[in-house]
Amino acid sequence: MFYGKYVTTPNPPPRPWIPLARPSTNRPTCIFTVMCYNVLCDKLATRQMYSYCPSWALNWEYRKKGILEEIKHYGADIINLQEVEMEQFYNYFLPELKLDGYNGIYSPKSRAKHMAESERKYVDGCAIFYRTSKFSLVKEHLVEFNQLAMANADGLEHMLNRVMPKDNIGLAALLQTTETAWDNTPPDAPFIHQPILVCTAHIHWDPEFCDVKLIQTMMLSNELKSILEQSAETLKSHNLHLDPSNIQLVLCGDFNSLPDSGVIEFLGTGRVSQDHKDFKAFSYKSCLEKILSCDKPNEFTHSFKLASAYNDEIMPFTNYTFDFKGIIDYIFYAKQTMTPLGLLGPLSQDWLQQNKVIGCPHPHVYSDHFPLLVELEMVPTITAAMNGVISHR
Question: What are the Endonuclease/exonuclease/phosphatase domain coordinates in residue numbering (predicted)?
């Protein structure tokens, strides 16, 4: 069916590209783009939730084509997707993106492992795609928050009753750069096989469970620390001897948390008070003290030096529905070794207002989230003496 004949709203103007810095010319750098996009899976795109969207525009067969076109249009080197159903990853996104030079990894939410095959294929999860001309995969890691909650509950009732039942996940890919990923390298210089850990996560959605969101994020940070330590050991077997701090980090996803939340405070500043309001009336201190650093009294900390590519001055909202408009999607990067050169600006608010677009999806906007896109310049954290060729796992 040619759905487009029903569209009367004009196309939105292209989202602007916002330049932030000029690339270096006097040292080796790897410039790459990262996308983060919650595509709104079919089973959650219900008429009850999105009654303002015409049913034909809510239809997955219509939306998936627009989503894929959008992804291909921006052509990011690393693509992080949330709410991808298992069947759609293997039968649609992966084969289509392979045609454009990508490979990818995927995991559904934890509930899938307890389902029959006929049901499992409709469970949504996270996906990471990477451009094979710039990156190769060393190892993938799955972070299951319900398993971590159970392992660290120590009999704590609200850890078992509130955190453990939520089957959200994080997915991480340990990548290494290829020879062609680098600019400004001297002709006789050895290849730089810089390792980079890319993680995407989809944190629990319900605003009533802000404590769960924060616990999931804190457990994720601890798992990333462990993964980086494991990754350093993995790379040793490939004759690349380095410290976990030599592995660079990009963390992004749908954190379902506003910029003033404990989740974003923790990720952005590296610390959060043990009595932060987002813990609500629940004390998780005994559990969290086992897995997190407490460098200062009454604070939980992590050691990553992260910065958010976006802020509310650039992007007033990343999720746009009838009853909620706000920033809940983020791209964090290692601020000591990466510099944002530019990013994709917001969808035109004039277009939204003039055409009375009260929420998305919409015939011209295929999810209720807007994709984020940043161009990062990365400098190597490994020296020539540390370099070695790492083969695919």
Answer: 36-369
Is 12:333 a contact under the CB 8 Å cutoff? no
CB atoms within 10 A of CB 15: 16
Q: Lowest-pLDDT range, 20-34, 80-94, 164-178, 378-392?
A: 378-392
Q: Which of 269, 139, 268, 283 is closest to 215 using CA atoms?
A: 283
- Give the tokens for residue 180: 């062609």
Q: How far apart are CA 366 and CA 56, in angstroms?
A: 11
Distances in whole angstroms, Cα of residue 120 to Cα of each of 80, 115, 160, 184: 21, 6, 25, 47
Phi, psi of 82 (to 5 degrees): -120, 160
> Is the distance from CB of 126 to CB of 161 less than 8 angstroms?
no
Contact 103, 136 (CB under 8 A): no
* pLDDT one-digit tens code per residue, 36-68: 999 999 999 999 999 999 999 999 999 999 999
- Look at residue 72 and tell me whether its pLDDT is greater than 80: yes
Tokens of 159: 């850890």
Point out the catalytic residue in the list 124, 167, 254, 329. Answer: 254
3-class SS shares of the chain: helix, strand, coil, % to 5: 30, 30, 40
Distance CA 344, CA 379 (A): 22
7 — pLDDT class (breaks 50, 70, 90): low
206 is catalytic: no
